[in-house]
From TrEMBL:
InterPro entries, sorted: DDH_dom, DHH_sf, DHHA1_dom, Oligoribo/pAp-PDE_c-di-AMP_PDE
The organism's place on the tree of life at top rank: Bacteria
Pfam family, one: DHH
Residues annotated as domain DHHA1: 230-304
GO MF annotations, alphabetized: nucleic acid binding
Organism in which the protein naturally occurs: Candidatus Schekmanbacteria bacterium GWA2_38_11
Protein name from the UniProt record: DDH domain-containing protein
Domain DDH: start-end pairs: 15-154
Lineage: Bacteria, Candidatus Schekmaniibacteriota
Amino acid sequence: MKKAVEAIRISKSFLLTTHRNPDGDAIGSELALAMALWKMGKTATIKNLHAVPGNLMFLPYVNKIHQTCKVGECYDIAVLIDCENLERCGNIFSSENYKTALINIDHHISNQNGSDYDIVNSCSSSTAEMVYRIIKELDVEIDKEISTCLFTGIFADTGGFRYSNSTPAAFEIASELMNYNIDPLEISLNLYESKSFQSQKLLGLVLNNLEISNDNKISWLTLTKDFFKKTGTSPSDAEGFINFAREIKSVEVALMFREIGESKVKVSFRSKGSINVAEIAKNFGGGGHKNAAGCVMDGSMKEVQDMVIGSIKIPVSEN
Ligand SMILES: [Mn+2]
């Protein structure tokens, strides 16, 4: 991190990008770092493959984020944020788009490293927590806008401080960020209570088809393209639905299967306890965290479900 910070200090222009379907941690971390770089008098441009989801449009300077499938310009440094590899950001840039270094700031256990400066810590609650440390190291003064973005990142990735990554450090940093007059209620309402009526109707359809394994430990949701058509919604409206499977008391692994093509299915994984779903997702070409992961698989819905559910082995508990 010290070396990366040194490289940042002596560079002028930065490209910042993050993963497909960006979430609160991805966008919050990008914006916070960009604002810190601007404060240092540097040029920082944020370019992502996908648009910012509606529930994050309240963030400061969110209109500065560009959407592109290919970066044209060349910068001194490219920064990959909350993203385990170039594929996850949609390969929107390559080594031709930066002169001196690629910096990788991430907390995914499956991060593939290999950049010039890998700042990767899978024990960190969020990438926002890591960006907070970098900003401190850069000696940039945190303000209300930066604080709002960092808090949003930590709050989003810890599920509002409910998940196992709600570490003492996450609480401590959040507490410090509160000193900058931010509005956690506004952040919470935007993140978790800004759904559309159609999105709730979609949830109704999906919950109607909720399933559970014989031992009650695996529960899964199925989303077909048909559901989106019926309710006039898009996949971003299904964000967080998997939690309804996860919230069942006996469930240890929750899954969401979403049809994305003729015979392509996106699988999301969540676990509550010791089951490492990143390992399971990795077997199918995906990745993520111990308690939250994903992959994309070829095959019909039925084939993919049988393959994935059949591969999950949950040990019988001793008590
Ligand atoms: Mn994250």
